[in-house]
């Protein structure tokens, strides 16, 4: 399996097994994110500021990278610290921060279902930048696999998870009147296209940067998450009055932060040793984990669209990674 195919060339069986285990763990963590957030709810609402969770996640990543370098898990490069090579990581940190905030504004111009369906266009934008920036060529079979991946995401989002009851306990009367109608404004469509382009560009640029620099992964992550902490600290401080940094946090919230931090580190390894396309498949496969955990923990029903989406994802994986 080559890097273009999402694997790591020249790995023996033990290392390939560890690589596969890492991808499975990342898939599980991605899929568990939304159910864990739901378990944090108090009276139907998240009791802490979302910016607090993002900031603490970035800070946890930074501390784990620093610890890895201090204990010698990854060797510090000889000579003077290569601080000049840190500057390029400001751009992906800025792009990730912009997209995290853009998601919030998108909800003003479209309903959540429309966003979930159309946001799958970021698979296409990532593939486009992957070919343009990294000068990789995708075969017709691989292109079809990515189209199936987009279709699976759209199918899953359109089907949704159905609550057996008409509403959630404690829902206000307005919520019982009926679902929000599907809608999107012209400005919302433009912002969604911008969101997908930024998502694809940030992913591919990070991969390009990590592969070109001959630096330990932990040091590259240290650069990236330093900018991430500074950016999110500014966004948190400028967010106006609200709960304190740790106010409203519970054991479930701490688990959300820790799992997202560990998953971010796993994804950086995928970007350095695998590819942005591999990341797309991990995120798409996590939909299956998300649905199963939501059904088990939140007692939500799996619609027929879930099984169709699972079939499409399996077919996409076979087409992209299967023998030719």
From TrEMBL:
Keyword Transmembrane: yes
Name of the coding gene: SLC35A4
Name of the featured protein: Solute carrier family 35 member A4
Species this chain originates from: Myotis lucifugus
UniProt xrefs under PANTHER family: NUCLEOTIDE-SUGAR TRANSMEMBRANE TRANSPORTER
InterPro entries: EmrE-like, Nuc_sug_transpt
Family, per entry: Belongs to the nucleotide-sugar transporter family. SLC35A subfamily.
Gene Ontology terms for molecular function: pyrimidine nucleotide-sugar transmembrane transporter activity
Cellular component aspect of the GO annotation: Golgi membrane
Transmembrane segments: 21-39, 59-76, 88-107, 144-162, 182-205, 217-237, 249-268, 280-298, 304-321
Protein's cellular compartments: Golgi apparatus membrane
Keywords for the protein's UniProt record, in alphabetical order: Membrane, Sugar transport, Transmembrane, Transmembrane helix, Transport
Main location as per UniProt: Golgi
Topology relative to the membrane: Multi-pass membrane protein
